[in-house]
Amino acid sequence: MDHFHYKDRVLYCEQVPLAQLAEQFGTPLFVYSQATLLHHLRCLQEAFAEVNPLICYSVKTNGNLTLCRLMASHGAGFDVTSGGELYRALAAGGVGEKIVYAGVGKTDPEIRYALANNVFLFNVESEEELHNLGDVARSMGRVARAALRVNPDLPPKTHAKTDTSVKGVKFGLDIETVLDVAHGVLGNPSVQVVGLHMHLGSPILSTQPYKDGAAKAVVLIQRLREQGHQISLLNMGGGFGIHYRKQEAQPAQAFAEVIVPAVKQTGCRLILEPGRFIVGNAGVLLSRVLYRKETGGKHYVIQDAAMNDLIRPTLYGSFHRIWPVAPAAGLPAPPDDYEAEIPDTFVQDVVGPVCESGDFLAQNRRLPILQRGELLATFSAGAYGMAMSSNYNSRPRAAEVLVDGTSVQLIRRRETYEDLVRPEVEL
Ligand SMILES: *Cc1c(COP(=O)(O)O)cnc(C)c1O
Q: In this predicted structure, what is the pLDDT of residue 167?
């Protein structure tokens, strides 16, 4: 479900035509729908209401302060993976008591920063990290609360670069070692193991991995308690998939059906760390066609968004729906299945201006004839779009706008050339 829809062959975000936003703010432009964002947060809150979950929005997915502030004001906490994300979460009105901190490489200054701000939980990924967390906490006269992140060793679920629960990845503790690692801090007054954490990978389109992961968690929590640990938290991470190609995602309710029974069995409080599920379908990347060209039997449409704006297609081979903002009469608007044969379309590559052959938003994609100056929408770009953007080729980052009904708010201005060189130090 999202609030991007065509009306009389014109694409709207809520009540605002996208063409109007392109005129006002230029392209490339990220456009977010507030109603979509809040709808998806609410879906999770409602689906899991029975176990009163702590829903920690994953800041790395899209850390824009305005979006994070919306999350906080609608009851979400935050999942952070660095000191910088913790800074964002706090700046957006987050409180330490609703922040969980993940990541394999937390530095001592980051740990101190988190402890000083009363971060609720550290998701710990190695034995050394657990002991170091205790040492840093002791040096500050604090007690750190830890959830051990376990790698439940499940079959592959998604792209190799984003699957985090198969054997041998850098994430979490091997499931066979969790009990030994926990035993090592039993009685340590500076660090308490109070929970179990897993983040299975992303995006996941099936509920089965959550069912399997939760079943393993139930057993482990039992063993940890037998060892003498007071386990009160089960953190099932994020990773819920969204619609990229068609309507392929599972609803929140489907994930709740496999997770909630396990949570109840443990008597733990549930923590979730969704990112993509909340913001992914809430954003589009708007771009303008610069040129068309044909070479070696291939048709290219060159437009002004590039891999530095949205790196997912070239990094993960990801599919994003792309369609004209004002499709010509006779075209389906938009097609139900973007991979199907669509009349009056032909196979094209959608590429950007960056000097890399890997600079594309789509390859071998059926699209209608596009005109110079025409606007394109790349859908489902709210998650890991702006967050993974760069200044490669000295391209200023795109602007971001938030639409709420008929109102439009610029939530990040377009970068300038001056911004590009500002941190540099000349001798
Ligand atoms: C990236 C990440 C998330 C969020 O993943 P989504 O797929 O965006 O929901 C949650 N938890 C951890 C530990 C992560 O690394």
A: 86
Same domain, 208 and 270: yes
Q: Say yes or no: 45 and 90 in one domain.
A: yes
Quickly state the pLDDT bin for 37 (edges 50, 70, 90): very high
> Residue 380: its pLDDT value, please?
97
pLDDT (mean) for 231-235: 98
Give the pLDDT band of residue 333 (cuts 50, 70, 90). Answer: confident
Distance 197 CA to ligand 1 centre (A): 12
Do 258 and 336 reside in the same domain of the chain?
no
**Same domain flag for 389 and 286:** yes
pLDDT of residue 162: 87
Least trusted range by pLDDT, from 85-94, 146-155, 255-264, 394-403: 146-155
Q: 83-92 long-range CB contacts below 8 Å, 24 or more apart? A: 83/107, 83/109, 83/110, 83/113, 83/114, 85/59, 85/60, 86/110, 86/113, 86/114, 86/117, 86/119, 88/59, 88/63, 89/59, 90/117, 91/65, 92/65, 92/66, 92/68
Residue bearing the CA closest to ligand 1, atom 7: 239
Residue 47's domain spans which residues? 34-279
- The answer to whether the CB of 57 is under 6 A from ligand 1 is no
Q: Is 202 in the pocket of ligand 1 (CB under 6 A)?
A: yes
More confident residue, 338 or 389: 389
Amino acid at 287: S
User: Which residues form the catalytic set?
Assistant: 355
Sign, CA torsion 177/178/179/182: positive
Q: Is the CB of 203 under 6 A from ligand 1?
A: yes
Residues 108 and 249 reside in one and the same domain = yes
The pTM (predicted TM-score) of the whole model is 0.97
Closest CA to 239 of 267, 278, 282, 192: 278
Is 199 touching ligand 1 by the criterion CB < 6 Å? yes
